[in-house]
Specification:
The chain is an alpha+beta fold and about 140 residues long. The chain is built from six helices and six strands. Strands 1, 2, 3, 4, 5 and 6 form a six-stranded antiparallel beta sheet that branches. Helix 4 packs antiparallel against helix 6. The longest helix has 13 residues.
Length: about 140
């Protein structure tokens, strides 16, 4: 678990909002003090969130609640968009997530595709730097 503690300590110091494209990540079980959303854009993976295992594929979304222990394993390969949301952006819905949370696998592909354009807008640094625009997009996504 030492590797996981180092991983968490590094990522916990990041800025409030982080968006990046990834592929074939195979991180050890770890957690963040923030929300993590992964949109699978290609391929398939074996995911685990808080002990619940599942397969995710193109147009599925993986939702990881704050402090949710999670890991990903390519099956055999995947690409994704990753959105890491710190507390400053989550206060509109944080109290709701304290009582209940979304399931780790959101597999309504048709619906998921409707929020993909808003998710992709967060790739633009100008959108990330404008707190109100970024917060509004996150409120739409969540």
């Amino acid at each position: 678990m030492k590797k996981s503690a180092v991983y968490e300590a590094f990522h916990d110091k990041e800025k409030d909002l982080r968006f990046f494209a990834g592929d074939n990540g195979n991180p050890p079980p770890h957690f963040h003090r923030c929300i993590e959303i992964l949109y699978i854009t290609e391929g398939k993976l074996l995911g685990e969130v808080d002990g619940q295992s599942f397969y995710a594929e193109k147009d599925d979304i993986i939702f990881v609640r704050p402090c949710g222990i999670h890991s990903l394993t390519p099956y055999p390969a995947y690409k994704n968009h990753v959105l890491i949301i710190k507390s400053a952006y989550a206060d509109d819905f944080a109290s709701v997530l304290e009582k209940e949370t979304l399931p780790p696998l959101l597999c309504d592909k048709k619906f998921n595709r409707t929020i993909l354009p808003d998710l992709k807008r967060l790739k633009n640094p100008a959108e990330q730097e404008n707190f109100l625009i970024a917060k509004g997009l996150i409120d739409i996504i969540i």
